[in-house]
Each structure stands twice: as C-alpha cells, then as structure tokens.
DNA sequence: AAATAGCTCAACCGCTCCACC
DNA sequence: TGGTGGAGCGGTTGAGCTATT
C-alpha cells in the first residue's frame, strides 16, 4: 500500500472524522485561518495529514458550505455546465455557491449510473409517439417548435421526472453527422428524444430560460448562442449574447467542434430552406455528452 | 427476519501544476 | 535549471445506509 508522501508520518489517522476531530479543526482554522495545510495537524493537535485536514475543511466544515439535496435549478446547471466543460468539477462547483466539487462529482456519477441503467432497460410503452409532434409546424421554409408547449401537452404532469419542472433540454450534437448537426430534444424523463438533422442551410435560434444562470438576469427574450469565450481566462466561462441574430448553422457546428453543448433552452427556432427531418429514438445510449 | 443488492457520499490516492530556492 | 514541497484536481474506493428479495 503506497501512502501519499504527506501521510507517511507515524500515527496518522485515516478514515471518517470524529466530532472531536472536527471541533479541533474548526477551532484552529477559525482562530488562526489557514495558510499552510501541512502545519495544521500539528498545530491543531490532530493525528491527520494536512491533506486530510484541507479536504475535511473544504468539503465539510467550512462555514459557507451548502448542505442538502440539489435544487432543480442546481441540477440543471450542473448538467448544462458538464455539457460545456466536461468533468471539470471544480470549475462547475465555482458556479454553484456553497457546493463542492466532490459533491457535484458524486451527484453526476450517480446520475449517470441511473441514466445508463435506464438506457439498457427495454423501451417504455408510455414514451410519447416518435412521429407525432402536433405543436411543430412545418411552414414552407421554417420549422419552429416551442419546448414549453411540447412539454405541457406531451408529458403527463404526474409522471416522475428527474427535474421538478419539465426538462427543456436540447442538445446540439455533431458527432453523428459529417457536415451537419443534430438537435436533440429530450422528453419523458430523458428516456426519449427527438432528433432534428440539420445542415448548413439551417439557422438556429435558442431562447434562454429566464431563470438560466447563464443569462445573469438578462432579458429572457435575448437569444443566446452558446459561444464560449475566455475559457482559460481565470477559469471563467462566459456566454456571449449575439443581439437576437439567428446563428448560421455552421456557427453552431464550429462551436460543437470539440464538445457537445448540453444546455437548457426554453425555445429553439430553426429556419431554413430545407425541412429539418425529425426522427426519434428511445435509446439513451446515443444521447450522452461525449465525455461519458 | 435475514441476506444481499444497490446507493450515497466522505475520504483517499495519484497525479499535475506552480512557486520557490 | 532542476529539485522540492504544497495546493488542488479528478478518479476511485468502501463504509454505512436503504431497499428489495
């Protein structure tokens, strides 16, 4: 058993922390602050390594920690951010005040396990019909569908859902097409999805939900293309608003070169000369982010 | 009631990055 | 410039709890 170099001293305790140990660590940190974690155990009278103290403080003892279940808004944000930044848990946690990377990672892993289990289960007969989207109109050159309408009519309100509100979840995915992009829209507790195959001749607008953390309180009528800027600038991610202009599809494709965007939108508006062919699948295996 | 399968989540491990010398 | 140590990160583990058989 190779122990970490910081934990090689004798008498180093491991495993769960006792209330007495917690009290010692809290007392020390609140009176002295934290500078060098490797000095903390000795000064606080703990038989732990500094690394263990740091983890205990950051993940459990610090006063601004938030406990309890994730709210639906937090869940959505985690899923959205994961679609953008992948397994960068600390980055995701920085967008959820009081939540730790560890907590988010645990949440995601258990969520993913659930989804995988469901995807390997036989398709449910209650899934809404794949070819019937009565709310979707096909004007000669415009396809428009409004997610909220879709949800309120297609999803029985009593059905158990992952989120407390209907999941307005759209995925922009270019993995399965060479020069186009797929817009996937999930419903029915994410067990089913509708897919629109788009090409370069289509334009896409996405209406951000008014509660979205991405909008920073912006007008919910603002169309937000999922452009990522300043990813490496102090770890901050910003989404740029492009003044309600529909994005050319190749801009979406360009955006999706390296990642699949996995964002929640209230409304997706697709325009183009050609009909965007809708299809559906009940197989979740094809619908996860690439980082799975 | 007992066994066991499944789940949660706190904690650990190994690694990278970075500052400092 | 290479070595060293601390901080931080993501992957993984396993104890303990809950649900199911």
UniProtKB/TrEMBL annotation:
Where would I find the Myb-like domain in this sequence? 9-61, 62-112
Highest taxon listed in the record's lineage: Eukaryota
User: One MF term from GO for this chain?
Assistant: DNA binding
Q: Does the keyword Transcription apply?
A: yes
Name the Pfam families on file: Myb_DNA-binding
Among InterPro entries, the record links this protein to:
Homeodomain-like_sf, Myb_dom, Plant_SW-associated_TFs, SANT/Myb
HTH myb-type domain ranges (all copies) = 9-61, 62-116
Q: What is its main location?
A: nucleus
Extract the SUPFAM superfamilies matched here: Homeodomain-like
An annotated GO cellular component of this protein is: nucleus
Location(s) in or outside the cell: Nucleus
Write the record's keywords in alphabetical order, separated by commas.
DNA-binding, Nucleus, Repeat, Transcription, Transcription regulation
Matching PANTHER family, A to Z?
A: MYB DOMAIN PROTEIN 55 (PTHR47997), MYB TRANSCRIPTION FACTOR (PTHR47997:SF31)
Q: Name the chain's protein.
A: Transcription factor MYB86
Top-level taxonomy: Eukaryota, Viridiplantae, Streptophyta, Embryophyta, Tracheophyta
């Amino acid at each position: 058993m190779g122990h970490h170099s910081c934990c090689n001293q004798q008498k180093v305790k491991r495993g769960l922390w006792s209330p007495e140990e917690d009290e010692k660590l809290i007392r020390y940190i609140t009176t002295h602050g934290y500078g060098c974690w490797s000095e903390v155990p000795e000064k606080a009278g703990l038989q732990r390594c500094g690394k263990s103290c740091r983890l205990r403080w950051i993940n459990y003892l610090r006063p601004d920690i938030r406990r309890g279940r994730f709210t639906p808004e937090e869940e959505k944000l985690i899923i959205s951010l994961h679609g953008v930044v992948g397994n960068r848990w600390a980055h995701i946690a920085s967008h959820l005040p009081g939540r730790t990377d560890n907590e988010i990672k645990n949440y995601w892993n258990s969520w993913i396990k659930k989804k995988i289990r469901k995807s390997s289960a036989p398709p449910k007969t209650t899934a809404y019909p794949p070819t019937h989207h009565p709310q979707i109109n096909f004007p000669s050159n415009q396809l428009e569908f409004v997610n909220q309408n879709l949800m309120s009519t297609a999803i029985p309100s009593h059905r158990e859902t992952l989120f407390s509100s209907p999941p307005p979840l759209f995925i922009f995915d270019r993995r399965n097409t060479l020069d186009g992009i797929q817009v996937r829209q999930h419903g029915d507790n994410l067990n089913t999805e509708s897919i629109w195959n788009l090409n370069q001749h289509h334009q896409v607008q996405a209406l951000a939900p008014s509660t979205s953390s991405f909008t920073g309180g912006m007008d919910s009528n603002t169309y937000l293309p999922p452009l990522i800027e300043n990813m490496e600038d102090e770890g901050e991610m910003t989404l740029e608003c492009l003044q309600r202009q529909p994005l050319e599809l190749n801009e979406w494709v360009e955006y999706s070169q390296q990642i699949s965007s996995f964002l929640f939108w209230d409304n997706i508006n697709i325009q183009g000369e050609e009909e965007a062919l809708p299809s559906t699948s009940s197989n979740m295996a094809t619908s996860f982010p690439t980082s799975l």
